[in-house]
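User: tokens in, sequence out, please.
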């Protein structure tokens, strides 16, 4: 099971930190991703991290603003989001071979 949390309403230029609690599987052996879906649009991959945290990748739209990380001891995935823009508004999901429950992020003044 994957459960994202930490979303909310934030002003443009603000920051949020998303968390994803994993359970029911050996989290530390799975590569993980964050993805998002904006209203009326298809899903968009955001970021990826290898199982050991040794490699990370980002979509061009978030590169330099978002940071993915993980704590395998706590079975938790994170996404630090800085310099948020209105176009970052979406439901954010953590995912591996399956998707978890999302958390809403709204960037608006």
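Assistant: Sequence out:
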């Amino acid at each position: 099971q994957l459960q994202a949390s930490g979303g909310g309403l934030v002003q443009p230029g603000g920051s949020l930190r998303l968390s994803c609690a994993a359970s029911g599987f050996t989290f530390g052996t799975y590569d993980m991703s964050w993805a998002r879906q904006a209203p009326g649009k298809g899903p968009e991959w955001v970021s990826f991290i290898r199982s050991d945290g040794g490699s990370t990748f980002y979509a061009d739209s978030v590169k330099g603003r978002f940071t993915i990380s993980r704590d395998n001891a706590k079975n938790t995935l994170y996404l630090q989001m800085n310099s948020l823009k209105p176009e970052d508004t979406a439901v954010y999901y953590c995912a591996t071979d399956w998707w978890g429950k999302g958390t809403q992020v709204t960037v608006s003044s």
